[in-house]
Structure formats: C-alpha cells, structure tokens
Amino acid sequence: xTCHDLFITYVYVxxxxxxxxxxxxxxxxxxxxxxxxxxxxxxxxxxxxxxFVRDPFFSLMQxxxxxxxxxxxxxxxxxxxxxxxxxxxxxxxxxxxxASEELESANSxxxxxxxxxxxxxxxxxMMLDAHICNMEKAAGRGPA
Length: 144
Known about the structure:
By secondary structure, the protein is mainly α. The protein is 90% helix and 0% strand. The chain is built from four helices and no strands. It has helices spanning 3-26, 31-54, 56-62, 65-139. Helix 1 (3-26) runs antiparallel to helix 2. It starts with a helix and ends in a 5-residue tail after the last helix.
C-alpha cells in the first residue's frame, strides 16, 4: 500500500462527502441518489478497511520496532506450536490406525472361533441326538 493509494481513497471519500453535502443543501438528495451514494460510501469503506486490516505492508508500517519484534516472536512461537500440533496429530492418527488394525485382527480371530465352536456344537448335538436314539432303541421305546 502506497501513500498514493491512501490519498486516492481519501479523495474518493471526500468527494462522496462533498457531493452529498451539495445535494442536501440544494434539496436534491432523492432516495435513488442516497442509495447510490450509500453504495459508493460502503465501497470506499471496504477499500479503506482492506488497507488498514488486510494489507500486511500497511500494517507493518504502523508498528513500532518493539511491536514488530513482539509480532515476529509471536509468529515464530505460533509456527513452532503449529508444527508440534501437526506432529502430535500424526502420532495420534498412527496410534488409532494401529489400534484399529489390532481390533480388526482380534475381531477376525473371534469370528473364526465362533464359526469353529458353532460347527463343534452342531456336531455334538448330532452325536447327542444319535446317542439318545440308540438309548431309546435299546430300551425298546424307540421306533422300530
């Protein structure tokens, strides 16, 4: 942001003020003129706000050397903190992935064990049914 840009913005705002003052004095400040003027002033305000808030060069011009040093130090600390945060997040994601893989493996083993035990139970039930039938035949109560 240069001084020239700041001056141009000042000229726009001052022009809008003078035009509105003249129209008001003449009694020609209609609703349409007022809306146009309002839109122009809002645009000027946005430009000025951008210069003061968003433009880093303009912001740095306003800082004292001590404030600038504090700002640089704060940014450096923030950079280090952000880096630590990213590392911790990666470690946390890695830990969660490892735990997820372990749980999936354990789940798979348990499902295999369930299938094995279900098959064994069915086999034992068939053996029990066969044994009961043999006992009933031996006792003479079963079907002939």
